[in-house]
Design goal:
The chain is α+β, with helices and mostly antiparallel strands. 40% of the residues lie in helices and 21% in strands. The chain has an eight-stranded mixed beta sheet with strand order 1-11-12-13-16-10-9-4. The structure holds one RNA strand.
Length: 437
RNA sequence: GGAAGUGUGGCCGAGCGGUUUAAGGCACCGGUCUUGAAAACCGGCGAUAGCGCAAGUUAUCCGUGAGUUCGAAUCUCACCACUUCCGCCA
């Protein structure tokens, strides 16, 4: 949630920065009008409530003293008030809903220092790791490689046809050693984060309610990107949703809570499937498993104190890099420009892995500091040094997208005969085998 | 799915139409005492929002939402969560 105090105290400058950085136009006139109306209405409503409370209390006192005449007099005096109070309360609630609705649709404010730009072309490379392997044959893409691998009588190890029959486009079936490799990757990532990076492993719901989706920012603005799950008995009003990332489940752990400052930073991780309708991406990445309706991801979420959240973002990005390094996959780190950042982010690093067949780097992880944006929506706070409740900062990052990592392994570790070498760190998870064939 | 019960501040727990301005306890913070600590005693101690330069002050909040009433933690209805039992089930 956008910080309303920024709009109240520094409206012009804030609106300028939002326009300059994100190209987002805050409706200044509309906000000012709503605020003025809210202020007048709130003062009036509270005044009426006070009158009613005072008179009602007096009625009680008169009755206690058996002064029926006085009580009747007071009752006559209050008579008209409840109706006025109710009308005012309703009007105030309407205005506050409007203001809240406006606040919920404004994206987060980028940190100063984030490069200004309109799209991914203007992201700024921070560093590279690893050297793309030079193949002495023509590198195949993961689809060709995976479809050529056979899982005995069950057919191709990577099978989009069967998936299409079962579910439609943008789904995949994996079989045999490839399915095992997919599982091995997730296990490896999770194990590394838990035993080497100090994360708490979590198992979380894949279906969440609208409050959770609002908390992390998917709702109300991006409902068309989600799969809606009508729950029996919910009469269509309270839909639930499949998570598009376990960031939603993990971050909402602290919704409506005051976190003990001693427990910060909190490092949470989970391996879950993610479900995205990919509305609006028709025609993009239609081949292969780069962009699916369902994919697995190991997610990292931090709940942090404000003064350390930027350091935590660096740490988290480093942890995602560690996974790629252990897997021996070349990558580069990009600092996203303002125009390419997500709705809730103030600063984001993307990790892009080298894909030989595409002869380019492709996003495999995205690590963001959301600062207090989600915390305000969720009412997630901690007691600061002054003993005051203050919103926490939240961060999230992929560590990593499992499907895309599988793609990277297939393409980077392919051999001339179509077999796939298995990175050393994964072999213990693969029953010791060194090659997929 | 059926039946019964329970939801009150960080925690326990009283209150079941009107000085509730939510008792009491625990925890926590400050002080007295003490060489220091503990104990004892004294005082403080909820959240959210508004108004105000400030001191302050006002409203709302007892699972959630409607309703009854001049007045609701308290009465009515619906919903949600949890507990116990029965049924079904991976």
């Amino acid at each position: 949630m956008f910080d309303i105090n920024l709009l109240r105290t520094d409206l012009a400058a804030t609106a300028d920065w939002m326009r300059e950085s994100r190209g987002y136009a805050i409706d200044v006139a509309a906000f000012e009008a709503l605020e003025a109306e809210r202020k007048a209405l709130q003062i009036q409503t509270q005044d009426l409530q006070q009158q009613r409370n005072t008179l009602s209390k007096a009625v009680g006192q008169a009755k206690a003293q058996k002064d029926d005449a006085r009580a009747a007099e007071l009752l006559a005096e209050v008579a008209a008030l409840p109706e006025k109070v109710k009308a005012n309360e309703a009007a105030l609630a309407t205005i506050q809903e409007k203001i809240n609705g406006l606040l919920l649709t404004i994206p987060n404010m980028p940190q100063r220092g984030v490069p200004i730009g309109k799209d991914s072309e203007e992201n700024v490379e921070q560093r590279r790791w690893g050297t793309p392997k030079a193949f002495d044959f023509v590198a195949k893409d993961h689809v060709a490689l995976g479809e050529a691998l056979q899982a005995g009588g069950a057919g191709a190890q990577l099978d989009f046809e069967t998936a299409a029959k079962l579910s439609g486009s943008r789904f995949v079936v994996m079989k045999g050693q490839l399915a095992r490799l997919h599982r091995a990757l997730a296990q490896f990532m999770l194990d590394t984060h838990v035993s080497e990076h100090g994360f708490t492993e979590c198992y979380v719901p894949y279906i969440v309610n609208a409050d959770s989706m609002t908390g992390t920012g998917q709702l109300p603005k991006f409902e068309e990107d989600l799969f809606k799950v009508p729950m029996a008995g919910d009469d269509g009003v309270k839909n639930r949703y499949l998570i598009p990332t376990s960031e939603v489940s993990l971050t909402n752990f602290v919704r409506d809570t005051i976190v003990d400052a001693a427990n910060l930073p909190m490092r949470l991780t989970a391996h879950t499937p993610c479900f995205r309708s990919e509305a609006g991406s028709a025609g993009r990445d239609t081949r292969g498993m780069i962009r699916q309706h369902q994919f697995d991801k190991v997610e990292m979420v931090y709940i942090s104190k404000p003064d350390e959240s930027n350091a935590m973002l660096e740490e988290m990005t480093g942890f995602a890099e560690t996974i790629l390094q252990k897997l021996g996959l070349p990558y580069r780190v990009m600092l996203l420009c303002t125009g390419d950042m997500g709705f809730g982010a103030t600063r984001t690093y993307d990790l892009e892995v080298w894909l030989p067949a595409q002869n380019t780097y492709r996003e495999i992880s995205s690590c963001s500091n959301c600062e207090a944006f989600q915390a305000r929506r969720m009412s997630a706070r901690f007691k600061n040094a002054q003993g005051k409740n203050e919103p926490v900062h939240t961060l999230n990052g992929s560590g990593l997208a499992v499907g895309r990592t599988l793609v990277a392994i297939l393409e980077n570790y392919q051999n001339a005969d179509g077999s796939i070498s298995i990175p050393d760190v994964l072999q213990p998870y693969m029953g010791g085998i060194a090659t997929l064939r």
